[in-house]
TrEMBL record, chains A, B:
Pathway: Amino-acid biosynthesis; L-histidine biosynthesis; L-histidine from 5-phospho-alpha-D-ribose 1-diphosphate: step 9/9. Its EC number is 1.1.1.23. Its cofactor is Zn(2+). InterPro entries: Ald_DH/histidinol_DH (IPR016161), Histidinol_DH_CS (IPR001692), Histidinol_DH_monofunct (IPR022695), Hstdl_DH (IPR012131). GO terms for biological process: L-histidine biosynthetic process. Zn(2+) binds at residues 259, 262, 361, 420. This is Histidinol dehydrogenase. Binds 1 zinc ion per subunit. GO terms for molecular function: histidinol dehydrogenase activity; NAD binding; zinc ion binding. NAD(+) binds at residues 130, 191, 214. The lineage of its organism: Bacteria, Pseudomonadati, Pseudomonadota, Alphaproteobacteria, Rhodobacterales. GO terms for cellular component: cytosol. Keywords: Amino-acid biosynthesis, Histidine biosynthesis, Metal-binding, NAD, Oxidoreductase, Zinc.
Length: 433, 433
């Protein structure tokens, strides 16, 4: 049974805080293990990666077989059905179209003092993408990570994907090919992150690493952060649906379950202004759970972390949504645009009853890599910006330096940084000579 | 003596790699201490902060005196000279004008399938800024951190600044006032970071923490990352000057020294296509070091980490610059714009002989918080973006769902996420009925 709360209940605040603070993830402390693995790969390169892959993935590799050959990729991709390929291509095309619009502009202008100022965006030279193996090996995640990198102009994009016992998901390779990935290595875990960050004889180092992974991968990404850039460390997935009683309870139930089925630690929340509708959705969830393939996972998530919250009105819903700062926010209400104006902390918003969150997972266009665990308060989903960096530009003329140089000199003196001031003064003296 | 290298020397590559790999910073491992401090503040709030401040800053505070009162701020600010105030205001105005231009646009469009897509930027609700006490208490850093936050629209901006033995830098308070900071607390260290991240009885928690600090502050920021957003963890400062022989060696020497005087771990590099000019600059550095106030620090930095590299031509200079990925890059060459096109990895570029890097530290307009330690390969300086987050928006119509829904359903099936597929199918069935 999920939690049922109502803002009219005097105990609401307590119940809501308990819900927000529920610890949904028990990350094992693997930091020492991961540190040792990273050191090993730094010291011994390919040899360490090969040994660790034999141990963890039960797969014997050589330097020559670390990387998928074009023939191996072509053979795997040939197994993909025409329908699956068409779906991947439609998704890729829409993701590309959305992310192309994110490309930021360079800028340059001349200010009243005569200084030329501006900035310039440029892509990272090389990026690495971690793709989990096994059950959570999602071709859609390959598209969502690789396409923004390629749109940003990353020249070299390498994928690492573990293939335990040699098992490969052909759809992952097809997605990589469609996205224009340049290199694919059959390695995973902390050893793959270390290889991407520090390089080995076979694998050139990258500048940025993105993509989801297990506790070992997350710990390794944290450790190599600084040596390379990383994306966020994602937690379990979440959805908040705000729905009025004009919705079909079964649709809303399915939307809640489509988060819950990801993971027992996922969280699905419903806020409604109609307690009866909330009950109807909960009943619909129970019905769907009777037949759902992943009922064990979805049921556990719904039971342990699900909630139905009844509010007085949609303004109250917006306030609660902002406290939750959900990764996914679905607004199934009469005027979703008006409500979206008020829900300011959210990774992605899905407006209206015809936009189930699953559309956003695959083919909507926006990225499905989104901030979890309330981090939408301060961070954004993956975008082309993650694969770009900005260089600021400034050029002074003698006149500009004459106008603003003395203030710089003054501030340098106030901070006791004499050489700073002298570097300006030497030039001003030349101008005044 | 700094290192002298020349690309024509067969041993150049070895020397260059040694220079790049020089370990400039010995961060003490304070992680366990910091973890204990953070836990203490989380558990005991103000009481812990007050105790720790008494211990580390020799300052007895109460809940009522944790925060500077408006009267205390006004009294301190009144001590600032008119000249210093005018310099701060000029700097603030220029920094504001530059950062206003960084504000990104929201977007919304309708795609050929009828889906409305877009994104929206919004500021974080509350930000905290760490300002070091003592020697490294720079009012310019207050402006560089606080103004982008306020331009982004952060409603609540709190500063923490330790005041060891009660000593306050009036210029820091003046800069905070000019920048529009809302709250100033006289606390520092890991306890201040913990208070900002988790809140206490007196200090409300923030969503994002920026600003430089010592090893304790850096370790605390790493630890609270995830609970709140943080900016980069900055390393020692660096400059690369690329200069031809048409420059005054003394100007270039001062530019190199204006990095070196920051810190014994700072690094100042010169690349030139004229070995004789390189020698002349090194000689000018030695002359300036005879009288420089901070000669001990600047001299140690120049001796231990400085370098003069002679290249065959400016294309070679650009290649080396890209391998260095400097925080600050000064281009004192005949055509700096052309060279800037080729130097793609740099935090900030200063073009031409009239743009000493010190201008950028204070009054240029661009931010002086920049990526160090080669991280300009994948990250950018502080900007309004650090105080904004993006929410993606998607709204499907029935027609749009009819067009792209089946592909989403197909991909959901291929990923064995049945509820995802069903949430789309239920709606498609209704449309087909």
């Amino acid at each position: 049974m999920p939690v049922f709360l109502a803002t009219t209940d005097p105990a609401f605040e307590e119940g809501f805080v308990t819900l927000m603070n529920a610890k949904r993830e028990d990350s094992p402390d693997v930091d020492a293990t991961v540190a040792a693995i990273i050191n090993d790969v730094r010291n011994r390169g390919d040899a360490a990666v090969i040994e660790l892959t034999a141990r963890f993935d039960r797969l014997d590799l050589t330097q020559d077989s670390l990387r998928f050959t074009p023939e191996e990729i072509a053979k795997a991709v040939a197994q993909v059905s025409a329908e699956d390929r068409a779906a991947l291509e439609l998704a890729a095309e829409r993701i590309r179209a959305y992310h192309v619009r994110q490309m930021p502009d360079d800028a340059q202008w001349c200010d009243p003092e005569g200084a030329t100022l501006g900035w310039r965006w440029s892509p990272v030279s090389a990026a690495g993408l971690y793709v989990p193996g096994g059950l959570a090996s999602y071709p859609s995640s390959v598209l969502m990570n690789a396409i923004p990198a390629k749109v940003a102009g990353v020249a070299r994009l390498a994928i690492v994907v573990p293939t335990p016992d040699g098992l490969v998901n052909p759809l992952v390779l097809a997605a990589a090919e469609i996205a224009g990935v340049d290199e694919i290595y059959r390695i995973g875990g902390a050893q793959a992150i270390a290889a991407l960050a520090y390089g080995t004889e076979t694998i050139a180092p990258v500048d940025k690493i993105t993509g989801p992974g297990n506790a070992f991968v997350a710990a390794a990404k944290r450790r190599v952060f600084g040596k390379v850039g990383i994306d966020m460390i994602a937690g379990p997935s979440e959805i908040l649906v705000i729905a009025d009683s004009d919705n079909d309870p079964d649709w809303i139930a399915l939307d809640l379950l489509s988060q819950a089925e990801h993971d027992e630690s996922a969280q699905s929340l419903l806020i409604t202004d109609d307690a009866g509708f909330g009950q109807a959705v909960a009943a619909a969830v129970d019905v769907r759970l009777e037949t759902l393939e992943r009922a064990a996972i979805a049921g556990a998530s719904w039971r342990d972390f699900g909630a139905v919250i009844t509010v007085r009105d949609m303004d109250e819903a917006a306030d609660l949504s902002n406290r939750i700062a959900p990764e996914h926010l679905e607004l199934c209400v009469a005027d979703p645009e008006a409500l979206a104006e008020k829900t300011i902390h959210a990774g992605a918003i899905f407006l209206g009853p015809w936009t189930p969150e699953a559309i956003g997972d695959y083919v909507g266009g926006p990225n499905h890599v989104l901030p979890t665990a309330r981090s939408a308060r301060f961070s954004s989903g993956l975008s082309v910006m993650d694969f770009l960096k900005r260089t600021t530009l400034a050029r002074m003329t003698p006149d500009a330096l004459r106008a603003i140089g003395p203030a710089a000199e003054r501030l340098a003196q106030s901070e006791s940084l004499e050489a700073h001031g002298l570097s300006v003064r030497a030039r001003l003296d030349k101008l005044n000579r």
